[in-house]
Automatic annotation (TrEMBL):
CDD domains: HTH_ARSR
Higher taxonomy: Bacteria, Pseudomonadati, Pseudomonadota, Betaproteobacteria, Burkholderiales
Molecular function GO terms recorded: DNA binding; DNA-binding transcription factor activity
GO BP annotations listed: negative regulation of DNA-templated transcription
Domain IclR-ED: residue ranges: 50-235
Chain intervals for the UniProt region annotation (Disordered): 234-261
Protein name: Transcriptional regulator
Superkingdom per UniProt: Bacteria
Gene3D superfamilies: 3.30.450.40, Winged helix-like DNA-binding domain superfamily/Winged helix DNA-binding domain
Length: 261
């Protein structure tokens, strides 16, 4: 469902071999539990943010709370403007963490869980520019199948390609002179190897800064913060879950005891 921007029951049945009646029962159970939502008009089922908590050991929530949150707080104290962490899911960008409540320069109150179309903001543009080419092609194909407000640039592929090329060249995505016109934004990718696991976004008052000036003043600090988050995520991904470590230690002691006997 995540790869295909949601899926119909027929598509899921074809992909899994599970009968449609069984899939309806499974999907209704997942929907009731909050892991799946349904677009009634298109009859497409999509994963929700809650599904990310199902991972064993290292989870998506771990790196947002343990790694990204303190880094974003430190960055906001340095740049003063509010900063957010956006991550990709279901072919859109979602605010996962924000400092808007603590920034003295906040003029809007974006909240955690807010969804943005991929091509509408700086985070989505940065994500698309820096993610692997095969992922980018899949996302754009998904967006074309399910048009929505904010992604109109899909109808102008030459302009879209130029935007993504420029984003890669300058090292950041940007939004300026677009809705909401009172603010602008720049965003940098958080990369673990070839993966883009999220984007750091800084929002500023459009009448006070242009993106080029915002980048001149703050891009280096944003890039350093993105690298700190990436390093922290890599550390979390390689750490052994506490329960596994305890079990392994217990087994070692048990084996040692048997040998001594």
């Amino acid at each position: 469902m995540n790869v295909r921007n949601g899926a119909t029951v027929a598509e899921l049945s074809e992909a899994t071999g599970i009968s449609r009646p069984a899939l309806y029962r499974i999907l209704e159970t997942l929907r009731t539990a909050g892991y799946v939502s349904i677009n009634l008009r298109q009859q497409r089922y999509c994963l929700t943010m809650l599904v990310r908590t199902l991972a064993e050991g290292f989870s998506d929530e771990d790196w947002v709370t343990q790694v990204a949150r303190p880094v974003l707080s430190a960055l906001q104290r340095k740049v003063l403007w509010p900063v957010d962490l956006g991550t990709f899911m279901n072919n859109a960008m979602w605010i996962r963490e924000t400092t808007r409540q603590s920034s003295p320069l906040t003029i809007d109150r974006g909240v955690v869980g807010l969804r943005f179309p991929m091509l509408q903001g700086a985070t989505g543009r940065a994500y698309l520019a820096f993610c692997p080419e095969n992922e980018r092609k899949q996302i754009l194909a998904n967006l074309s199948r399910c048009p929505e407000s904010g992604n109109e640039m899909l109808e102008r592929p030459g302009e879209l390609k130029a935007l993504l090329d420029r984003t890669r060249e300058q090292g950041y995505g940007q939004r300026y002179g677009e809705q909401p016109t009172e603010t602008g934004a720049i965003a940098v990718p958080v990369m673990v190897g070839e993966r883009v696991i999220g984007c750091i976004n800084m929002t500023f008052i459009a009448s006070a800064l242009r993106p080029e000036e915002a980048a001149r003043q703050h891009l280096a600090a944003m890039v350093r913060s993105a690298k700190k988050i990436a390093t922290g995520v890599q550390r979390l991904e390689t750490e052994e879950p506490a329960g596994d470590a305890w079990n392994r230690g217990y087994q070692d002691k048990s084996n040692t005891g048997k040998d001594d006997a």
